[in-house]
Amino acid sequence: MYWTTGSGRIELNITKANAAICSHQGQCDDDVNLVNQLPSIKKQLAKIDPMLLASELKEYGAWDEDELKDHAQNLQRLLWIAAGDIMDGN
Predict the structure, then answer these.
(1) Which end of the chain is more exposed for a tag (fewer CB within 10 A), N or C?
(2) Is pLDDT of 32 > 70?
(3) How far apart are CA 62 and CA 86, in angstroms?
(4) C-alpha span between 8 and 69 (Å, rounded)
(5) Gap between the terminal Cα atoms of the chain
């Protein structure tokens, strides 16, 4: 499935099955990390500019400036958000 941030500046292609792994009730961190290691996902995430990603995530208002300095964690956050949107049909 095709997913994009609200601004359209970041795009990802994720299967619905992989989105379902990352988006469920309870703690999703381990599952997001697992999907993050898939070659097709890893390749897409590797192309994302850290500053752009931090800027996009800042719009959510869920993380402070210090938290948004962690690019690896930001990639996890992005994948989790994308999975949730896909599963919600957004």
Answers:
(1) C
(2) yes
(3) 19
(4) 21
(5) 11
Write out the two tokens for 60.
Answer: 């959510």
Structure tokens at 35: 């999907």
Q: DSSP label at 67?
A: G
What is the number of residues in the chain? 90
Mean per-residue pLDDT, 38-64: 95
Task: Say which amino acid occupies 24.
Answer: H
pTM of the model: 0.93
User: b/e map of 68-88 (b: 16 or more CB within 10 Å)?
Assistant: beeeeebbbbbbbbbbbbbee
Closest CA to 18 of 62, 90, 84, 73: 84
Q: Map out the domains of the chain as residue ranges.
A: 2-87
Alpha-carbon torsion, ordered 11, 15, 19, 20, to 10 deg: 170
Structure tokens of 25?
A: 């009730």
